[in-house]
Amino acid sequence: MVLSHWAGIMRELPKSRLFLKSLQYNSEELCQRVREIMAGHGVEADRLIIEGPSPNLELLKSYNRVDIALDPWPYSGGLSTCEAFLMGVPVVSLPGPTFAGRHSATHLVNAGMPELVVNSWNEYRERVLELASDLDSLSTIRQHLRDVLLQSPVCDAPRFAKHFATAIRAIWQRYCEGKAPAALTFDKDGKAWFEDESQPIDIVCTPNASKAGFNWQLTGKIIAIDNSAKLLQQSGFKELLSLKAFGVVAFDPGSRVENPSRFEGSDDVQLFPHAVLGDGQPATLYACLDPEMSSTLAPLPPEQLPEGKRQGAQVLATLPINTIALDSIEGLESLDWLILDDLNDAMAVLENGENALKDTLLIQVRIAFQPTHKRQPNLAEAQHWMARHGFRFYRFNDMQYSCYLPDDVPSEQRQATELVAADALFLPSHERMDVMQEAQLKKLAFLLHTVFSIRDMAYVTLRRFDEIYASNYLQAMGIRKKLNPLEEGLDMADNFSEADAKGKGDDSISSMLDDLLR
Fold it and tell me: Which of 74, 207, 328, 488 has the most Cβ atoms closer than 10 angstroms to its Cβ?
């Protein structure tokens, strides 16, 4: 049947020729049969070029003899379609009734050329005639097809691998739930649905942290909102993303992130330059001589600043900037980790994020103990807000000190004693921890362990829902030897000594990220 449709197209294009090349055409009997069929439809043998196979390089070169590729039916071309595009040859495809007949259509749609996929033989004929009747346009299309293919999702191997892994895991999860097989569909954002379900599949992530039989088995990703894009500027950020357990929404008010285009199209990072969290009202960005002093808070007068900060705090320009209220952000599956810096109005972010933060696992606020800008967050204000909204102060992290000794003092003799700034970490209150679900507790423990190298609180958090699981965590991290079966029933806190709390046996995945926030 397909030869009859091709013959009909050739009759309308009297100067056209049909080029067939494949392994099966080593058979002279088959070649003669094709000639006879085409002759019966009014196409003489001298308009047919029939060849056997060639090595791959010669095969690719043979596309230079082709202007338009006709996808066969009902078994379509898969690799052949990609090779044709690579060599600048457009392919017209009519999808067949089975999976085998839809290879070419899939590649064409994902390469951004859905107009080459038709719904009937009449459309098939019309599309070929359109291409053949405008040789100038066809020449232009051919010049760009290779770039179109290479820049399309068809050649995006990491994206394909991620979606394929999601599909396999989703199918396995469905099987484990005892549900019947069903068709699986992906949307443009990579979320997967089964045809009989209204919500996307909640994939159980398995970060690369399995040792001695222990596995984190997170449900969904840990979603972080970073109000200064601090994470994205850290050397350990690539390793953090490689765990496939984090999703980051970052605001970069001063546009300090280098090469922001590297995050375009990322499923794990959304970067918003020249935007900042706040109360949702327009604000002002004070661009300073020292970019690290640029802020949506006005610098203090020079006489109130340390001598080394006075020149850098000079304002070069004031720029309008939009602020976004946390409570106005839609579409986040969760908000697990909030990172606030000391160069923006942290209290405005908190006051306008009460609803968004009610289930947050960790809030990190940079506290300026030696202020350089007006209305910088201070510990008393932050702690008061946290206490009223179900959080407790946990500890300081990434403490910065000033040293006042002369520069010629050897490094081993230098002493820094004045606390300049530190990240205040706030965890859910004990009352909230008592009612948190297992999935939330696992996420919090994983966050503490991976980013901050905190083992004791990670252990206590895991122990809230499963003592054996928490014990396995200690064993996997090399903190405690494996218990014998008689000891497994003992109180797990009995063997967690001061020596354990000092972090001996630090050989977990967090060793890659120890300096992430320092």
Answer: 207
Cα–Cα distances in Å, from 379 out to 199, 300, 382?
Answer: 41, 19, 5
**103 vs 113: CA distance, rounded Å:** 14
Question: Which ranges of 41-134 does DSSP label H, i.e. alpha helix?
Answer: 56-62, 79-86, 103-110, 121-133
3 state SS of 352:
coil
List the structure tokens of 327: 């409570």
| Direct distance between the N- and C-terminal alpha carbons of the chain, in angstroms, rounded to an integer | 69
| Nearest to 386, CA basis, from 355, 363, 361 | 363
Residue closest to 516 by CA, chosen among 245, 250, 236: 236
The set of residues, in sequence order, having a beta carbon less than 8 Å from that of 324 and lying 6+ positions away, is: 251, 275, 276, 277, 278, 280
Q: Please, are residues 338 and 423 in contact by the beta-carbon 8 Å criterion?
A: no
Q: CA dist 81 to 24, 70, 155, Å? A: 19, 10, 13
Cis amide bond preceding 53, omega within 30:
no
Q: pTM above the 0.70 mark?
A: no
* Tokens found for residue 85: 């595009």
Q: Which residues contact 16 (CB under 8 A, 6 or more apart)?
A: 9, 10, 47, 132
Give the rounded distance of the alpha carbon of 158 from its chain centre: 11
Q: Are 90 and 142 in contact (CB under 8 A)?
A: yes
Pairwise CA distance, residues 298 & 314, whole Å = 10
Long-range residue pairs from 151-154, CB within 8 A, at least 24 positions apart, any chain? 152/110, 152/111, 152/112, 153/110, 153/111, 154/82, 154/107, 154/110, 154/111
Give 72-86 pLDDT, tens digit per residue.
888 888 888 888 888
**Each residue of 58-74: pLDDT tens digit?**
888 888 888 888 888 88
